[in-house]
Every structure is written in structure tokens, then in C-alpha cells.
Write a structure and sequence with these properties.
Blueprint (H helix, E strand, L loop, with lengths): L9 H19 L3 H10 L3 H6 L27 H12 L6 H11 L2 H4 L6 H21 L15 H9 L7 H11 L2 H11 L5 H17 L5 H17 L3 H8 L4 H12 L7 H10 L4 H18 L13 H9 L10 H17 L3 H10 L4 H12 L7 H31 L15 H40 L16 H28 L3 H12 L11 H17 L12
Helix pairs in contact: 1-2, 1-5, 4-5, 9-10, 11-12, 12-13, 14-16, 16-17, 17-19, 18-19, 18-21, 18-23, 21-22, 22-23, 23-24, 23-25, 24-25
Length: 574
């Protein structure tokens, strides 16, 4: 390996320099065999033979001479070869990369360092030398040069040396040194110091690092992992990477993942929500609990915040509109339809208790028409032959009761609108100066009016009968009455709300029905209605206070006189 003679031609020197650099990079990557192959392909087989000298000697035939002899591996004069490498590295006129090449194979740190261009190269050089020294200490070869044993390395000295470098302050370099030392507490502290200012890629790196450490130290890294995952998930939210959000959230403890996802998914647009449900199913995230948490949060915030006023849509305030929209979170999965029905009933009770019919109708319209069928189907999948729980049976009946009342409210609104929209009678002042054509036009208007009024009266009769039937459906609701549970429930607050709604809307519905019948000149039907109110079967009279009952009887009294009944049967005493 001694260089002598005339210098190489400039082109040959450049080719040799590139070859040596490439060889060093291959050795740096641990690919010595590829470096040798490169030498052979470049026509410098002698270089391939030279770098073969670093291999440890092994003779598989040394202890068993009876079998067929196998080939010997390695260099039996390895110590001598190392001496030559050390002398070569001290020679002048040798390129830095070539010195580093042979220094890396012979454990000469000072020959390697000049070729190192970054922190990782320096770190590799130290540990490559440390490994070489550990091997030679085991072999105890006295033929190595004296300078080889002069500055022996240790793990602590290498880490201390690397820690003094400016580049060691970099996050990745710092964590690399701590991983080498097995310094878990230092790693966790470094993560906590950098997580708040870390970018998306750094967050992802820290998450995966801590996930690996958690598998090694399951009881020592949970808090830092949870904080890092939370930070990364919130960063992914801004990038709208919802599948990644759900995946990383699934790695958190149950309560934490529900809390975090309820915060993140609350801002997802309606069209993206079904996709999030699919992701949740893939990664086993309890989406039912997440959606219920979101729903409750929206309702709580909307009910506690001041009402900013009415919007232009159906006379529903902004706060009520948010409450109505919240129910959509419970309709993402058919398995949650039972909860959706109970919560929809609760919202409608709340709105009706505040006499807010528009949002109550809006909530009802949010519930799919096949809800009752879906509830029975989903229940029978896992409970074949077992009836629904009492609370669900009551919820289904309450839904039907509320549907009956809301239909009644809509029918009365339609009846009122139709009655107020009576065609107007055309007017014309016929005078001596009125022309013949004007008289003909007036006669045509009169005929058109007569046709319109006839059609209007027919439609009014139909609408009146429809409104009457729907109101009686509420007053005489089957199996116990309107908003009366079929089975005794366990929710005391709900029972009080149902009783309050019965006391509020049975008298008001009765009063409206009486007005409809009287304005339609159906006084006999008003008298018959009084029989239903007084019936012991329905006991509706218990829901009227004294003033409401007095007003009702006064109207019945007037109707009984008009239809020729004995008014004394319905009179009131002062």
C-alpha cells in the first residue's frame, strides 16, 4: 500500500478519488462486500483483496480433523494487517477518504474523523472504533501498534464527546444519544420540551418513538405518549386527515379517546361524518359514545348560552337550530337509533314545554321514518325472542304520541291558513255609464268567484274533518291516553314532564277543537266532545283547571242552545 513512483495522471487520479470515496461510503453503510465488488468491477482487484484483511480468522477444521475440510475464513495475520493500515494512515500524500477507509477497518478513529461531514458520521466513527476496540480486548493481540491502546473509548466517553458538539442540541440527535444510553427519563423530558413547538412531521416521529418505547416500558411512558398523541391528533385535524385522526385516537385509553374525538369530530362537516363512522368501525373506536358526547356538549352549550334571537328559517333561533342539528350525531349508526329516539323525544318535550312548536317539528323531522322498524331489527339481532326493554317501549309510544300532536298542530295551522284565505267577492259599481263589455267582465268574475268559493268550502270541509280527527286522536289516544306510558318507567323527571305536557296540551287542544267545530257550525259535535271530556274512561277532566273547565263549559253551553239540546245539563253554577 505504499505509494511510490511518479504521480498518477490527472484523469486517473480523479477516477481513483471517486472510487475511494464510493468505497468509504459503502463501508460507512456497512456494505464491505459491495465495496469489494466495486473494486473488482473497476479493475482494481488488489484493493478488494486489501480490504479483505479486516475479517477475523476462523478455521472450522481446527477441532475436527476427521471430516472433509472446509474453507478457512478471515485473515490469520489480521494484527499485522492492522499495523500496516495504521502506518498507511500516517503516510503523507494519501487522500482523506482513503485514510478514513482503512482507518474504519482497523479501528483508527483519528484517521476516520477528517472524512466525517456531520454529526451522524462522527457518531458512527466513534462507535465503529469502540466496537473494534472491544473485539481486540477480547482477542488480547499484542502485535497491534502501541498507539492503538493509547486512547481507549467507552460508551460514557463517546456520549460525553458527542454531547459537547453543537449539533447534539438538535432534537433527533439528542434523542439518538439518549436512546443509545437507554436514558428513558431523558427521552421523556426531551419530548415534553419539544412537543409544543414541534411541527407535524416531528409530532409523528415523537408519537411513533413513544409507541415503541411503550411496548418496551409499558408502565413508564403513558403520560408523555398521551400528550404527544393528543398534540399530533389536533395537528392532523387541521390537515383534515380524519382517518389518521381516528387511528391515532384508537391508541389512547378509552375515556381519553372519547373525550378527544368528541372535541375533534364536532367540527367535521355533515358529509364527512359517515366516513368517520367507517373509520371508527375499522379501528374499534366506540363511535356511539363519541357521538353521544358530542350531542350532549352541543345541547348543553346551546341551552346555557343566551339566545341571540330568531333566524330567518322557520322562526327557529340560532341556539335552538344548533340543538336540532345535534340530533344528527345520533343518527350516524343504526345501532344508536334507540338512543336517538329517546333523545329526540326529550328535545321535543323540552321545546313543547316552552311552547316552541317550530323547533319541536324540526327535531321530529330529523328522525327517519323507519326508526321504529330499525329499533326492533337491531334489538332482535342479539336478543332474539326477547321484547324491548320497558324504557324503549315507552320511548316508542311517546314518539307516536308526539307525532300525533305535531300532526294535529300542523293540521290546525293548515286549517287556519285555509280559512283565512277565503276568496274575495268581486265588486263593481254598475252605473249608467258602465259599458257592455265591463258588465260582461263583471259577470265572468262573479262566476269565477262562485266556482272558487265552492271549491274553497269543499276543501275547508275536508280540512275541518281532518283537523277534527287528528285532534280527537290526541285526546282519545289508545291504550291509556296521550303521553301515558304503557309500562311504569324509572325516569322520574321524564314522568313529570309528560304529566306537565298533558296538563298543558290536552286542555289547549280541546279548546282549539271546540273553536274549529263552532266556526264550522258543528255544534252537535261540540256537545258530543263534552261527553268525552266527562268520561270516566278517559278522565280528561282531571287535566283541566277550574278556569279552563269553566271556559269549556260556557262554549258547550252556547253550542247546546244552537243545536236545540237542553242547556241545563251543561250550565255552571256561580
Amino acid at each position: 500500500m505504499k505509494i511510490s513512483g511518479a504521480p498518477l495522471h490527472e484523469i486517473d487520479a480523479e477516477d481513483q478519488s471517486r472510487l475511494v470515496k464510493h468505497m468509504f461510503h459503502l463501508v460507512r453503510a456497512g456494505q464491505v462486500d459491495k465495496a469489494q465488488q466495486l473494486c473488482i468491477e473497476s479493475g482494481q482487484c488488489w484493493r478488494a483483496a486489501v480490504i479483505e484483511g479486516w475479517r477475523l480468522y476462523h478455521d472450522p477444521n481446527a477441532h475436527d480433523l476427521s471430516r472433509d475440510r472446509d474453507s478457512v475464513e478471515g485473515n490469520i495475520t489480521r494484527a499485522l494487517w492492522k499495523n500496516c493500515c495504521w502506518d498507511f494512515c500516517n503516510s503523507s500524500g494519501v487522500s482523506t477518504e482513503e485514510k478514513a477507509l482503512y482507518g474504519a477497518l482497523s479501528g483508527n478513529l483519528q484517521a476516520i474523523l477528517p472524512a466525517c461531514t456531520n454529526f451522524h458520521d462522527v457518531l458512527w466513527a466513534h462507535f465503529k472504533t469502540l466496537l473494534d476496540q472491544e473485539v481486540e480486548e477480547e482477542l488480547c493481540d499484542s502485535m497491534l501498534p502501541h498507539s492503538y491502546w493509547k486512547d481507549l473509548l467507552s460508551l460514557e466517553s463517546v456520549i460525553d464527546t458527542m454531547g459537547k458538539m453543537k449539533q447534539s442540541r438538535d432534537l433527533y440527535n439528542k434523542l439518538q444519544l439518549q436512546l443509545i444510553c437507554g436514558n428513558l427519563s431523558g427521552i421523556l423530558q426531551t419530548v415534553s420540551e419539544h412537543i409544543e413547538k414541534a411541527g407535524l412531521s416531528q409530532c409523528r416521529f415523537l408519537c411513533h418513538l413513544l409507541l415503541i418505547l411503550e411496548t418496551i416500558y409499558p408502565d413508564q411512558a403513558p403520560a408523555a405518549l398521551h400528550d404527544t398523541l393528543t398534540k399530533y391528533i389536533l395537528a392532523l385535524q387541521n390537515e383534515e386527515c380524519m382517518e389518521e385522526v381516528v387511528f391515532y385516537a384508537s391508541l389512547l385509553p378509552s375515556e381519553l379517546q372519547i373525550s378527544l374525538l368528541s372535541e375533534v369530530l364536532a367540527h367535521v362537516e355533515d358529509l364527512s361524518r359517515p366516513q368517520c363512522v367507517q373509520y371508527a368501525a375499522v379501528y374499534s373506536v366506540p363511535i356511539e359514545e363519541v357521538s353521544m358526547r358530542i350531542y350532549k356538549k352541543i345541547v348543553s352549550e346551546s341551552c346555557s348560552s343566551p339566545d341571540p334571537g330568531m333566524t330567518s328559517v322557520a322562526n327557529i333561533s340560532d341556539g335552538d337550530a344548533r340543538v336540532v342539528g345535534a340530533i344528527s350525531w345520533l343518527l350516524l349508526s343504526e345501532t344508536q337509533r334507540r338512543s336517538a329516539l329517546r333523545e329526540a323525544n326529550r328535545l321535543i318535550r323540552m321545546f313543547l314545554g316552552a311552547r316552541k312548536h317550530a323547533p319541536a317539528c324540526a327535531v321530529f323531522e330529523m328522525i327517519p321514518s323507519d326508526t321504529i322498524e330499525v329499533i326492533h331489527r337491531e334489538w332482535s339481532k342479539e336478543n332474539q325472542g326477547i321484547p324491548l326493554p320497558p324504557d324503549d317501549i315507552n320511548a316508542v309510544r311517546e314518539y307516536l304520541c308526539l307525532q300525533a300532536y305535531l300532526d294535529t298542530h300542523q293540521a290546525y295551522s293548515d286549517w287556519s291558513a285555509h280559512r283565512a284565505n277565503r276568496p274575495s267577492n268581486p265588486t263593481c259599481n254598475l252605473e249608467a255609464t258602465t259599458t257592455f263589455s265591463e258588465k260582461v267582465a263583471f259577470e265572468e268574475k262573479k262566476k269565477s268567484f262562485e266556482i272558487s268559493i265552492q271549491r274553497w268550502e269543499q276543501n275547508l270541509t275536508v280540512q275541518t274533518q281532518l283537523t277534527r280527527d287528528k285532534m280527537l286522536n290526541v285526546l282519545l289516544f289508545i291504550d291509556g291516553g296521550w303521553l301515558v306510558d304503557e309500562i311504569k318507567g324509572t325516569d322520574c323527571l321524564r314522568e313529570e314532564q309528560l304529566k306537565s305536557l298533558r296538563r298543558q296540551y290536552i286542555p289547549s287542544t280541546t279548546s282549539l277543537l271546540v273553536d274549529v267545530l263552532r266556526q264550522s257550525e258543528q255544534d252537535q259535535a261540540v256537545v258530543e266532545l263534552c261527553d268525552y271530556i266527562a268520561s270516566e274512561q278517559y278522565q280528561l277532566y282531571n287535566l283541566f283547571n277550574q278556569n279552563e273547565l269553566r271556559e269549556l263549559l260556557e262554549k258547550v253551553y252556547d253550542s247546546s242552545i244552537k243545536c236545540g239540546c237542553n242547556p241545563l245539563q251543561f250550565g255552571t253554577e256561580d
